[in-house]
Design a protein that fits this description.
The complex is a heterodimer.
Chain A (H helix, E strand, L loop, with lengths): L7 H27 L3 E2 L5 E2 L5 H6 L2 H32 L4 H16 L2 H11 L6 H7 L13 H25 L4 H8 L4 H12 L1 H16 L3 H6 L7 H11 L3 H30 L1
Antiparallel strand pairs in A: 1-2
Helix pairs in contact in A: 3-7, 3-10, 4-7, 5-7, 7-10, 8-9, 10-13, 12-13
Chain B lengths: L1 H23 L16 H8 L1 H35 L2 H15 L2 H15 L5 H11 L2 H12 L3 H9 L4 H30 L2 H7 L6 H10 L5 H23 L2 H5 L6
Helix pairs in contact in B: 1-12, 2-12, 3-4, 3-6, 3-7, 3-9, 4-7, 5-10, 6-10, 7-9, 8-9, 9-12
Classes of the chains: A mainly alpha, B mainly alpha.
Chain lengths: 281, 260
Amino acid sequence: MIRSPSYAPRLIGGLAFAVMAVFFVVPLIFMIVVSFYQPDPMGFYKVDFVWENYAKFFSSFYYSVSFRSIYSSALGAVLVVALAFPLVLIVSDLNRTWQLFWIILLLSLMCLSEVIMGFAWLILLSESAGLPRLLEALGLWDNPRSLSPSFGAMLIGLVFLGFSIVALILYPSLARRDRSIEEAAMTLGTPPALVFFKVLLPTFRTSLISVTLTMFVYLLGVFVMPTMLGRPKDWTMTVIISDKALGDANLPLGAALAVVMLIVTVIVLLASALFAKGRRI
Amino acid sequence: MRKLYLWIIAFLLIAPFVVVLGVSVGASKNITFPPEALSAAWYEELLTEAEWLAAIGRSLLIAVIAGVIATTVALAINYVLWRTGSRFAKFTFALGLGPFLLPPIILALGASLFWAEVGWYGRIEATIVSHGVFLVTLPLVIIARGFAALTDEVIEAAQTLGATPAQVFRTVVLPLIAPYVATGFALVAIISVNEYLIANMISGFVVETLPIKIFNNVRYGYSPVVAAASMLFVALTVTILLALSRITDLVALFGTSKDG
């Protein structure tokens, strides 16, 4: 096909690139720049070049916050994938109507505000409504009290939040999977549990690991669930960053902490990409 | 056994909202479930009090314009990639995937510093633009599926008949990818309405959106109006997605159905 020389695609492409560069890349670069500035208690920051903000990161407080963030995000990510994978496997074999029901349910949950999910669980775990009261009515708990804030409540919030995203990421590949091997195994009388562990898990190992890493990075950045459902000692790095930047108005320190998180994120994503690539060859 | 697992998960996913619904229609000012007496007072307060109405209006305004920005950029990137297939277009596409891969707190803090430096801190335009740019990933991926589904024959037929690239785009490409664009727009609008962290970091003190207002209410002593506002969200989100399922084949978008 003959194309007349045209500048339109280049112009459109250039504009789209400019929008992404100015409003997505420049703010990130500027954040890195600010992380070297001096904090100014009177205003935003003083232009400077100091390592002091990063030096603050290497203290026991931030070590324990980092460890906690990594621990709760990793635990949350593994739980989410462990729960969502079997669900999507089952759902992708349902008839069209029920598939649509599940897709709409999952899409609704993916779109729904973290604030509202946090609020809903807050009520569900509270003393006056929800679970503790139900347990009392059933005679299982004599002296019910609120189940949140606690680490468990925060973890439930994280799993609830990530569930729909992981399910929707896994959905296309699971729905289009080649079912012949499973069917062959079933015909030969292999128990379903064995098919799951010997056929399905190995087949999807790569995508399961990469979706776990994606979820880990996502949960690292969650703000509402730890603040609403967790105790201050459960707070993750995201809450601390927001606290430093907005609460203490120490923007350079907040920026430095965010840059550390950015570096961790990029390392995890690169590892995930390399792993996926290595497996495919 | 399989069915049981489905039902348990469905129950756990829906139960929290049933409780919120119960609280929102309860007459008591204290949060109780199940409600002792029914009342629509909290919905009335939500829809008559100026502060709540203003928050709803702001959130909807941000969502609609951010949706237009995100889908326009996503469409532009996909169109150029489809027409030229150049390395630059591929790079721009990859750049568009970035916001989804990074934790939102990083985007939020970066944007907050950026807008403060530009002098737009606390302005609704800043929230709109950042939402539009950060939520570009979903329409980008969805519209890409639309372009992938285009067959060369229709395009070549139009070109043989003498259509200019602009005419091909308007009369052939656009109608065929319109459902994907609409899906992308709807998802961005819904996510924008629901988004808390970025909106709060950019200009939360001034531009109080609905999620920010709910969060502040929950944190500093809450009333059942919050439950009513939450249910409004749930209803809005589910309604839009149901409407969407009528114009786009969502099952086909996420996978292939078993019987078709």
